[in-house]
Write a structure and sequence with these properties.
The complex is a heterodimer of chains A (152) and B (282). Chain A is mainly alpha-helical and 152 residues long. Chain A is built from 6 helices and no strands. In chain B, 40% of the residues lie in helices and 31% in strands. Chain B is rod-shaped. Classes of the chains: A mainly alpha (152), B alpha+beta (282). Chains A and B meet through α3 and α4 of A and α1 and α2 of B.
């Protein structure tokens, strides 16, 4: 039952992510993504390989649904899946915001790396990275708190 | 339940992660307009950087063989330089030694041809020398071999490119020499000991000379021209109460013999044919 709830929430989140990608096109600098945080919230005991495959599949789905460059989100989600356990081991008990900051740092490091590190100037990339990491961390913190209340 | 070892599990995770990332990069490269051009360009730049590094590393490890090659080349150049120096020195010596002498002997039907010594035996009683000139250079058997400092030997065998010279440093080799420009003559023979010593035999007892007097070729041989200085008188002894045996310091140091002059006498055949007739006369 618990698993079914996770799957439903996940499908909804993917759809929501695709919708967000469609809505936030007026500010190209900002990219709001909630799925990285959702991925981190999946059961900790889940083995790494299936977890990475799920993350990859989610990423591809979001890329296809949002009509973006296929592979961008998939690469970033897979990186989060691979590094989730070491990251959680470091930030355990130090607050959800810090956890989100690190998760989004990884996400945008890969995402922006593939998206624009080769073509944009380093200052633009750094600005984009900093803004997106902070905004997403705050936004996801709010969503996490809301979801937590819903799941309880 | 069987579980994979931690290392393999960790390596497997890393491998799958890497594979998925590679798939993503391929997808991005194929689908992103900018990435389609930028990523391959950057990959090419990285490739060229790697190639340069690889080439540099390869060059570094090839330094040993390059050094060997340079050393060989250096040795070859040094040898060539030395050869040229010798040649120049020989020519200078020839001219300074007695240019009129060569001119004179050229007129006297003696011709000279320089040759490089490619082998020089000095360690036995029967020594030989190999020269780098042979029949194709006009070298023939029984030609004399000299230097501006003395007699070297006689050509005994000739191949197309080389010639075998019976060295003067040979217990059976003698030639006629004289003391002073118009002095007494006798056979000069290597002692078999030092390569710088020879003995002049059969000098009449009444002939006087001094220590340091020069010993020359007498010119009584068809192999060598006359008046080539070969050595200086060191000391002498009276033998059998009638003849002097003179110790001669040779001018030519055979251990430093790099070049020699092959002497051809155009009258050789004439002299030989005359000698053949002698028994008939007798």
């Amino acid at each position: 039952m618990n698993n079914f709830k996770y799957i439903v929430i996940f499908i909804l989140l993917i759809a929501f992510q695709a919708m967000l990608n469609g809505c936030f096109t007026f500010i190209p600098l900002i990219y709001i993504s909630i799925l990285p945080a959702a991925l981190v919230m999946l059961p900790y005991a889940m083995p790494a390989v299936p977890f990475m495959l799920i993350a990859f599949a989610c990423g591809i789905t979001v890329d296809v649904l949002s009509d973006g460059v296929i592979g961008l989100n998939a690469a970033a989600y897979t990186a989060i899946a691979y590094l989730r356990k070491p990251v959680l081991a470091i930030v355990q008990g130090k607050g959800r915001f810090l956890e989100n900051l690190i998760v989004y740092s990884i996400f945008f490091l890969v995402y922006l790396g593939l998206d624009g590190i080769l073509s944009y100037s380093s200052s633009v990339i750094f600005l984009r990275f900093a803004i997106n990491v902070v905004l997403n961390s705050i936004f996801v913190l709010i969503v996490q708190n809301l979801l937590e209340k819903q799941l309880q | 339940m069987y579980t994979l070892p931690p290392f393999f599990s960790k390596a497997g995770r890393l491998l799958i992660f890497a594979l998925l990332e590679v798939v993503c990069v391929i997808l991005v490269t194929n689908n992103g307009v900018m990435q389609r051009y930028v990523i391959p360009k950057k990959v090419r730049q990285m490739q060229s950087g790697l190639w340069i590094t690889k080439s540099n590393i390869g060059s570094y490890f090839a330094l040993s063989s390059i050094n060997d090659s340079l050393a060989r080349e250096n040795a070859s150049l040094m040898q060539r330089a030395r050869m040229l120096e010798q040649k120049i020195s020989l020519m200078e010596n020839m001219s300074s030694f007695d240019s009129t002498f060569i001119q004179q002997h050229l007129q006297d039907n003696f011709n000279f041809q320089s040759a490089k010594v490619i082998r020089n035996s000095m360690s036995s009683l029967h020594n030989y020398i190999i020269l780098d000139k042979g029949s194709k250079d006009g070298i023939k058997e029984n030609m004399g071999v000299i230097t501006p400092c003395g007699v070297v030997g006689i050509v005994r065998a000739v191949s197309e490119n080389c010639s075998f010279v019976l060295s003067f440093l040979n217990s059976s080799q003698t030639f006629s020499a004289k003391i002073g420009q118009s002095g007494a003559f006798g056979p000069l023979k290597w002692s078999g000991g030092s390569i710088l010593k020879a003995y002049l035999y059969e000098i009449p007892q009444h002939i006087s000379f001094e220590q340091g007097d020069t010993v020359y070729t007498s010119g009584f041989s068809s192999f060598y021209p006359a008046d080539i200085p070969v050595g200086t008188v060191e000391k002498w002894d009276v033998k059998d109460g009638s003849h002097k045996e003179v110790e001669v310091n040779l001018l030519q140091d055979f251990s430093r013999l790099d070049y020699a002059l092959v002497v051809s006498n155009s009258r050789m055949e004439e002299i030989d044919s005359l000698l053949v007739k002698v028994p008939q006369v007798n």
